[in-house]
Amino acid sequence: MKAKVYITPKKGILDPQGAAIEHALPALGFGGVANVRVGKYIELDLSGRDGSDEVDKMCKKLLANPIIEDFKFELVPD
Amino acid sequence: MSTLPQTETRTVRFGVVIFPGSNCDADSHDAVGTFAAAAARYLWHKDTGLDGLDCVILPGGFSYGDYLRSGAIARFSPIMEAVTRFAADGGLVIGICNGFQILLESGLLPGAIHRNQALKFVCRLVSLRVENATTPFTNKYNQGQVIRVPIAHMEGNYFIDAPGLASLEQHKQIVVRYCDESGSATKEANPNGSLANIAGVCNREGNVFGLMPHPERVCDPVVGGADGRGVFASIINSITQART
Amino acid sequence: MTNKAGSKPAYELLGLRASEYDDICSRLGREPSYVELAIFSLMWSEHCGYKHSRPLLKGLPVGGDCILQGPGENAGIIDIGDDFAIAMKIESHNHPSAIEPFQGAATGIGGIVRDIFAVGARPIACLDPLHFGSLAKARQRFLLEGVVAGVAAYGNCMGIPTIGGEIHFEDSYEDNCLVNVMCVGLVRHGGILKASASGEGNLIFLIGSATGRDGIGGASVLASAEFDETAEEKRPTVQVGDPFTEKKLLEACLEMRDRGLLVGLQDLGAGGLSSSASEMASKGGAGIDLDISRVPLREKGMEPFEIMISESQERMLACVEPHNEDSVNEVCARWDLDATVVGQATASGRLRIFNAGELIGDMPVAALVDEAPTYVVEPLRPSHEVDEPLGEDRYPQPADLNQTLLTLLASPNICSRRWVWQQYDHMVQTNNALWPGGEAAVLRIKGQKRGVAFTTDGNGRRCYLDPRRGARAVVAEAARNLACVGARPLAITNCLNFGNPEKGGIYHQFKEAVAGMREACQALGTPVTGGNVSFYNESFGKAIYPNPVIGMMGLVEDVSRIQTHAFKDEGDAVLLLGGARPAVDGSEYQLRIHGEVAGRIPDVDLELEKKVQSLVREAIIKGLAKSAHDVSDGGLACCLAESAIAGGIGAAIELDSSRRPDILLFGEAPGLIVITTAAASLEPLLELADGLPLKQIGRTGGGRLSINAGGAALVDVPLAQIKRAWEASLEAIVAGNDAPAGS
Predict the structure, then answer these.
(1) DSSP codes joined into one string, A23-69
(2) In terms of Cα–Cα distance, which of C56, C172, C48 is closest to C518?
């Protein structure tokens, strides 16, 4: 299986990168855009196993910082 | 009665951890070396013993390239288990810049760091107000003293949730704040967007301290100032006091 | 793959001439294989082979008492006494940065840093001269932001302070930005490493990152010639820098040096394994056998020629005696670095390439490294170069000289560079004896009284008007900058940025610039220790301004006796030193206010220059000069304004001259320095000058800068106003706002 992990800034946490992008878009003619959040996307190859619990632990322990980040992931066949 | 061995045992011994990507290890080591009463040695991130040390310095730099998040990988180094035990036993631990980030990631200090509000690396002298001059790291400063110390980071924007902040305030864990030259912690004096202008915090016990600014860079007037000496002098002072 | 390209022979697609191909065939005694052709095309490229520059560069002064290592090595090395030496080198990364500014600049830093630790030195600073087009264009702002961020990302992570450099904006660089990168290192004499492979049977280690298809560049035509469907995947990829790996590589290499494990060390830069292996063999007077099947790869299905010419970053080649193999592996493992034996040194004098035992390339090292053909082109003086300066009445006199001063101070070429240097860690390693933004950077050497000073200078506009005088002026200005902090210049490294040398006009510029550099280096006693030539900086037939960029190092005997350009105290005497006569030709004033670049720049008087610089240096060391500032872009008025801003102290100046006020204030000529001195030191200073042109022109003090001439008030502005114009300009321009000039 392949795990696709999405890490985003926690709701309500200031996201300076997102704010910068949100600020830049109207200047390029893209109006009406709000709540831009910049996160990380991580792919992991689990060499065949279905590692839902394992990925959850990885996220909590290393991949995301629970103080400022949320995460979600999906498992897809290779 | 021989005095020489006594003098030697009185030397305050610092250990400076080298993580892959540390780059202020030598600066910290050399800063300690400017104090006659102190000596420093390097520790490797895979070491597991901190025997005979009085204070551990986690230096600045880009441990593991700051990939993923600053400090996120370094906190799992073997030495961090030893540092955690050392801190639990009351040993003094100071994390500077990347070292502060590692302490936050490892949970030895509360809060988290994210990217500077201006999204750019910033290196310059800033003014800091000493908020708590009773810690082992700041006892040689006066309460409310304004010192000039440089920052050099891309990720120094300190965050903690509201209950966490209240708890920091209540237990006097905010050790230094960014301020202007007159000592006011204004928005304009905040170089990175840190919550409540927080530049450095300690744990509730007061023996673990982390800060984004670099006191080790201002320990010699030839290179821009000596306001950082107080941090090392405080550590030496508190260790020496504790021994007597 | 177009039919048109497909119909051309492979050598031509690789940039080789028919005569060069014939030459290769005759040297090999047969037609080259693809892998050999790819290697020859790199080694005989202008970049590696110096085909158009070598004959002219031979005339540059290279020797000197303090030169431990000159051109031809990875970096020049200069003795500074007491067993210490400085390694330095400047290089260009112009073309990659024009495509991807962040990674282009980052990998530029990575490359030049490797050059420094390849000679065994610990990198102690970087300086980065940058040239872009006008910031009025969004693309140029994007390039500036990207390049600065890339320099910062790589240098900051490595823990190497970026302490200087310069930034110029001229339309001429719009399609060809210049990103030159300089690195300096500190080494004890016994720690100097050579880039040589020698000793038959010694092992050749490849250390660091795995090899991918990075920067395959022009040679990718070989891939697309062979593979049609998959051509897309085989396109050259942008090189991505990994400063974390390079930091580990640096520490591991210096550790191996300390333990005596290295016979020779060489970085992999332009030309990848091909260039590094042949250079190492050449320097060691040996040969090398490489087995490319042992090279750790990052991508699948790489062709042998791709492995040989890949420019993947963060790799070093080391020559190691067999009994040290385990120790090398141990050090590299400790730093989590891959280290693989990919070959061995031989006595054959040949570079032989094997693929899992099969011989696929066999070339004489000398042919690759030393025997690239050279070309001499008939120089042609361009028509814009004229013999006579412009008439002084060519331009109307500005109505409001205060406003002119504010406009010039806010010019992107003059205004504060704080926005840039605050993004660089300029303090790490804690040797920074001066803050950025001054005449030159000074580093202390820990545990020593002495220090070292560095500066970079380039002025394409002046060189465009007169390449010979321009180059002389550039070298003289670099030396003057060092003198103004109290340092004695010792040596230079150069980065020669030019257009297409096959054209007579460009060749003329190059030839004249090299001649000017030679004259100035000889006169000032600063030999050339190496550097880099970057040709073909042109697009759509239009070349950049010819731009020889100089990196100069100097020695400070006592780091506690250095000086800045800031006014220090109220009531100090302000003096003007030097005899040069300012002119409009080629000045920032001419460009910014009158929108023209024309005329003939004044020449520098090198004999007088040398005396003037000695005087400044001596005055600083003796404590007689409390500030020193070179009169440069923007002329005397901007020079005075900068010192006033830096010190937060105004000045009242009274000039004794009947020249046109605008030329007096803003005209430029090489060789003038503004000095301040305490009233009590005035007499001893004038005595020290011993007849050199030095006269008092005013006093520091107050909150205004006022300049009078012949009784008339030319300039009178509050300090706060000039500070505002100068300080916030670049930030505002980069943000896309108008500069606050005159506000």
Answers:
(1) HHHHHTT--S-------EEEEEE-TT---HHHHHHHIIIII--TTTE
(2) C56
Per residue in C496-555, pLDDT tens?
999 999 999 999 999 999 999 999 999 999 999 999 999 999 998 899 999 999 999 999
Residue C739: the pLDDT is 45
Name residue C161's beta-bridge partners: none
| A-chain residues near B161 (CB < 8 A) | 67
Residues of chain B in Cβ contact (below 8 Å) with chain A: 68-69, 72-73, 76, 105, 111-112, 114-119, 157, 159-161, 193
Closest CA to C43 of C61, C27, C60, C59: C27
**Min CA distance, A72 vs chain B (Å)?**
16
Q: Which residue has the higher pLDDT, B163 or C6?
A: B163
Judge whether residue C627 has pLDDT over 90: yes
Q: Which of B105, B112, B119 sits opposite A16 (nearest CB)?
A: B119
Residue B8 in this model has a pLDDT that exceeds 70 = no
**Contacting partners of chain A (3+ CB pairs under 8 A):** B
* Residues C167-197 pLDDT 10s: 999 999 999 999 999 999 999 999 999 999 9
State the pairing for strand pair C162-169/A2-9. Answer: unpaired
Q: B231, B165, B242, B198: which is closest to B32 by C-alpha? A: B231
How, if at all, do strands C528-534 and C488-497 pair? Answer: parallel
**Closest CB from B72, B76, B119 relative to A17:** B119
3-state SS, residue C1: coil
Most confident of A33-37, C86-90, C94-98, C710-714: C86-90
Query: Per the structure block, which two tokens stand in for B51?
Result: 């025997």
Q: Which residue type, as a one-letter code, is found at position C349?
A: G
CA distance B20 to B8: 32
Residue type, C641: A
**CATH topology assigned to domain A2-76:** Mth169; Chain: A , (3.30.1280)
ipTM of the predicted assembly exceeds 0.90: yes
Q: Measure the CA–CA gap between C627 and C678, rounded to whole angstroms.
A: 10
Cross-chain residue pair C157–B216, CB shorter than 8 Å = no
State the average pLDDT for chain C. Answer: 92
What is the pLDDT at residue C235?
A: 47
CA distances from B118 to B181, B194, C416, C419 (A): 21, 11, 19, 12
Phi, psi (degrees; rounded to nearest 5) at C222 = -65, -40
Contact C189, C79 (CB under 8 A): yes
Q: Kindly provide the b/e burial profile for residues C268-289, where b requires at least 16 CB atoms within 10 angstroms of the residue's own CB.
A: bbbbbbbbbbbbbbbbbebbbb
Q: What angle do CA B152, B158, B160 make, to 5 degrees?
A: 170
Question: Which tens digits make up the pLDDT trace of C356-384?
Answer: 999 999 999 999 998 899 999 999 999 99
Q: How many CB atoms lie within 10 A of CB C61?
A: 20
CA C107/CA C227 separation, integer angstroms: 29
Q: Which residue of C has its CA nearest to B25?
A: C429
Does C148 score more than 80 pLDDT?
yes
DSSP state letters, C689-719: HTTSSEEEEEEE-SSEEEEEETTEEEEEEEH
* Tokens representing residue B81 in the block: 């288990």
CA–CA–CA angle A40, A41, A47 (5° rounding): 140
Any idea which architecture B4-243 has in CATH? 3-Layer(aba) Sandwich (3.40)
Q: State how far the Cα of B15 lies from the Cα of B13, in Å rounded to an integer.
A: 7
CA dist B178 and B150 (Å) reads 11
Buried b (16+ CB within 10 A) or exposed e, C127-158: bbbbbbbebeeeebbebbbbbbbbbbbbbbbb
Domain ranges for chain B:
4-243
For residue C482, the tally of other CB atoms under 10 A from its CB is: 30
CB environment A34-47: b (16+ within 10 A), e (fewer): eeebebeebebeee
